[in-house]
């Protein structure tokens, strides 16, 4: 009897050995204090831990999923400090240029705050022989931290980004950034721009490049030297260890462009099969015979901070609807709450959007919310505020799947008019369903793709065969400016030489005539 079980025991032992031999030590550094970034980043590290890897995560929010081989080092206090500074009116009034500068200032503040935090010091105090096989980090906000990671064995880097593909990720992956047809994330132009739109787009990019390379990165390098010492590698040196980049990009929403093999699109990585809803929500949605309108301004913008005038306009409009309204509202109560409105401080957004009775989504059009609405096929009434939100809603409007209503124009009358159009014109839902079918049509899920390529880097180490030589070229070489200068110099020199010869001949001829 014992002999019958021997092959099974041997097989089990071999499988365990294989798993142990392939398990890697992975460090993940997520500096951006934003719940939406946390929601997008978390599935990757949790899945890697569930697959047997030892994962250490450093970030501003605690992980909700507990895995035995997952270590969570929480940078407390970052998100709360940022959240208190949000002001609806001020955010809407700022110019795109100010938005860009504000984002770099915010990322710099995050990085410097983490440097000083006890949790980061806890990581830096790990034993000297600690080695990590891989570093996963967000593409911005960690530049002043990463130089110190060399003490853990200079691991290859997987760079990830929760908001589309920023220009610095294109630079580090060697992917061409075509300003002629790819609008800047704060510019609401399309991929078919007029001359003056291309001028505007180019100016936005030039400003961003200047701010990033001449203000932001030098400040990050200075902070790294002050913290780790003068011999710490600069971020430009750290960038050379980026093996692959993964971005929240999908051509269904985002304008298509040529990408290199080391830039992996993983849009919708946070989206999973819908889970059972809490019973009160389930009953509310099931009982909505006329359907449900879901209203959420995301994780950074809070409905409780809306001005009394805007809140009144929303409630008066909702009260006249035959549909029920589910509103993400962060306070315990909503004075004057209509009977057809239910509020909740936290609502499982993706699971709610999957309910068949949800007819419409009123959203700020953050990228995660936009992707989830597309995936579930729910048309959007978009009220954008800042950053990429205006361009996200503009793309959906161009696809006939949404209507934009600016916050300044939000009144009871404008809201009711827009809601009526979206709810009674079936084309919006049909167009969103078409986008949904395209978004879903992939050979694997975005999370499966992200896990595969992460483990691909572990298996093949640094993956130099995926790297474009464009990463090693300077600006003049990349755009062939040196070659163009050379080619232009040849005819110019020829003309100058010809002019000199002609002048010399003319001078010689004049002298001869004078002598004669």
From TrEMBL:
GO MF term list: glucuronosyltransferase activity
Location, primary (coarse class): membrane
Residue ranges of the TM segments: 478-503
Record-level GO cellular component terms: membrane
Pfam families tied to this protein: UDPGT
Record field: catalytic activity: glucuronate acceptor + UDP-alpha-D-glucuronate = acceptor beta-D-glucuronoside + UDP + H(+)
Record keywords, A-Z: Glycosyltransferase, Membrane, Signal, Transferase, Transmembrane, Transmembrane helix
Protein name in the entry: UDP-glucuronosyltransferase
Organism: Gryllus longicercus
């Amino acid at each position: 009897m014992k002999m019958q079980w021997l092959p099974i025991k041997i097989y089990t032992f071999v499988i365990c050995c294989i798993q142990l031999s392939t398990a890697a030590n992975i460090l993940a550094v997520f500096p951006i204090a934003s719940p939406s970034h946390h929601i997008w980043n978390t599935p990757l590290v949790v899945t890697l831990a569930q697959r047997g890897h030892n994962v250490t995560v450093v970030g501003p929010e605690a992980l909700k999923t507990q895995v035995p081989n997952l270590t969570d080092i929480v940078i407390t206090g970052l998100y709360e400090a940022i959240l208190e500074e949000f002001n609806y009116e001020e955010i809407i009034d700022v110019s795109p240029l100010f938005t860009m500068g504000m984002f770099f200032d915010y990322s710099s503040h995050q990085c410097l705050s983490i440097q000083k935090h006890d949790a980061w010091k806890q990581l830096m105090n790990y034993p000297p022989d600690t080695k990590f096989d891989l570093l996963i980090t967000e593409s911005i906000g960690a530049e002043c931290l990463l130089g110190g990671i060399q003490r853990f064995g200079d691991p290859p880097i997987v760079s990830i980004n929760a908001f589309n593909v920023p220009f610095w990720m294109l630079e580090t992956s060697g992917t061409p950034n075509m300003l002629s047809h790819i609008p800047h994330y704060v510019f609401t132009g399309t991929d078919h721009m007029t001359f003056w739109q291309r001028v505007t787009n180019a100016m936005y990019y030039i400003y961003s490049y200047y701010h990033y390379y001449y203000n932001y990165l030098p400040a990050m390098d200075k902070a790294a030297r002050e913290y780790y010492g003068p011999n710490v590698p600069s971020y430009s040196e750290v960038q050379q260890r980026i093996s692959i980049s993964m971005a929240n990009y999908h051509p269904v929403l985002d304008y298509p462009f040529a990408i290199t093999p080391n830039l992996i699109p993983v849009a919708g990585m946070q989206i999973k099969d819908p889970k059972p809803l809490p019973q009160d929500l389930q009953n509310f949605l099931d009982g909505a015979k006329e359907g449900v309108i879901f209203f959420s301004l995301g994780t950074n913008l809070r409905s409780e901070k809306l001005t009394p005038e805007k809140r009144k306009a929303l409630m008066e409009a909702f009260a006249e609807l035959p549909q029920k309204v589910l509103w993400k509202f962060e306070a315990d109560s909503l004075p004057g709450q209509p009977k057809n409105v239910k509020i909740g401080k936290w609502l499982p957004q993706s699971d709610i959007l999957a309910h068949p009775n949800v007819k419409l989504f009123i959203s700020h059009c953050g990228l995660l919310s936009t992707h989830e609405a597309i995936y579930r096929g729910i048309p959007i009434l978009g009220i954008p505020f800042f950053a990429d939100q205006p361009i996200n809603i503009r793309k959906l409007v161009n696809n006939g799947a949404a209507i934009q209503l600016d916050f300044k124009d939000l009144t009871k009358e404008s809201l009711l008019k827009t809601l009526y159009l979206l709810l009674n014109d079936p084309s919006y839902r049909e167009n969103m369903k078409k986008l949904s079918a395209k978004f879903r049509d992939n050979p694997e899920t975005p999370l499966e793709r992200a896990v595969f390529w992460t483990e691909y880097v572990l298996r093949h180490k640094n993956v130099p065969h995926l790297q474009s030589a464009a990463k090693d070229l300077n600006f003049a070489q990349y755009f062939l400016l040196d070659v163009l200068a050379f080619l232009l110099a040849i005819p110019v020199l020829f003309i100058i030489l010809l002019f000199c010869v002609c002048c010399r001949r003319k001078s010689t001829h004049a002298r001869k005539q004078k002598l004669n």
